[in-house]
Fold:
Amino acid sequence: MQTNKTRVSPTLPARERILLTAHELFYRDGIRATGIDRVIAESGVTKVTFYRHFPSKNDLICEFLEFRHRRWIEWFVDALQRHGENLNALLPALSEWFNDGSFRGCAFINSVGELGAVLPEVVEISRRHKLEMMEAIARLLPPSRHRAVDAQAVAMAIDGAIIRAQFDQSPEPALHVLNRLLKALLAK
Amino acid sequence: MQTNKTRVSPTLPARERILLTAHELFYRDGIRATGIDRVIAESGVTKVTFYRHFPSKNDLICEFLEFRHRRWIEWFVDALQRHGENLNALLPALSEWFNDGSFRGCAFINSVGELGAVLPEVVEISRRHKLEMMEAIARLLPPSRHRAVDAQAVAMAIDGAIIRAQFDQSPEPALHVLNRLLKALLAK
DNA sequence: GCCGATGTAGACAATTCTGTCTACATCGCC
DNA sequence: GGCGATGTAGACAGAATTGTCTACATCGGC
Structure:
């Protein structure tokens, strides 16, 4: 009898199961708050299997961030495209994310806050993540002398909105205020 | 012979010493990363003294956030006043903060990311903090119909800038991009 | 047919964490 | 004078942490 609380498909290879489980727990509860034993139990593997794939928790943390990065950017680019591939796509795209029940802010902002001082790789991966987010935003802007700086301004406003959405009960104020900020930025 | 690594003045009452030490360690290294034993050792008190003042680590965490809140707002209001008490004061004020060697982002953003899912008081205190920050910003704006929303937009931009300054090596890009964002917001 | 990669089961070690306990000292204030 | 608040020193308990170890099973590909 298996009484595992496995939440991921047991047909997936062990490595995928571990990564998916870590992704859910790390993002939801925080990284330090999540013990390795918990990840092992919920992904339905054994300790040996786990440690064969991830020599230490720090390795898992880095792989979790890389995994999250690929996943998030893929969603972001797709959402922007679905909503018209211009600046007006930003709000509906972010609205999707903020309204998702599992939204708990930006995994990279959270991780840098939690581990940045102690695990430099976390900062490095997160910086790369924000850079790629900014590049995706830049592609929405018409080529011009200010494109790079404008994209940075939009990215900064979005980070502020992520924080706001994370703090508030509802994502509406964050989206509303972000809209005002974007409008002001475009009307220059 | 006292070999304590006490970093706070030993003449202060025990409670102050604990709070100052916790403030430094929690902000610098993260909350979960900092053990109670470490706080006790570096504040130069004993376990009994510590637990008489703070029944549990969670109590200390909340008191740390309240302490940080009072301290930060006091500094912020003062800095805004010193720099002219108008919107142009924001940049030089934040520049002071970002350039401080101990800057490691916003303690409330970091704490919500780390503990928000598991300690609701943290979110509550942090929300209050952001509200008071926003009110201080609102007082820089001329009374108008949009004052509240404008203050929220400025606060959101500032949160984005805090993140950016925390991620980057240097605070310059964060300040520069924030400047652009504020200029756009005012020129409406 | 064999080898290496991947998988399972669970005991065990070493450390660290929070929090409790006993026993005693000092100081301000009613 | 006595009491309560505040302080010191350090042993101890109980739980949780990360990571190691032995022993065995399965399966695909060379």
About this structure: The first helix of chain A runs from residue 14 to 29. The radius of gyration of chain A is 18 Å.
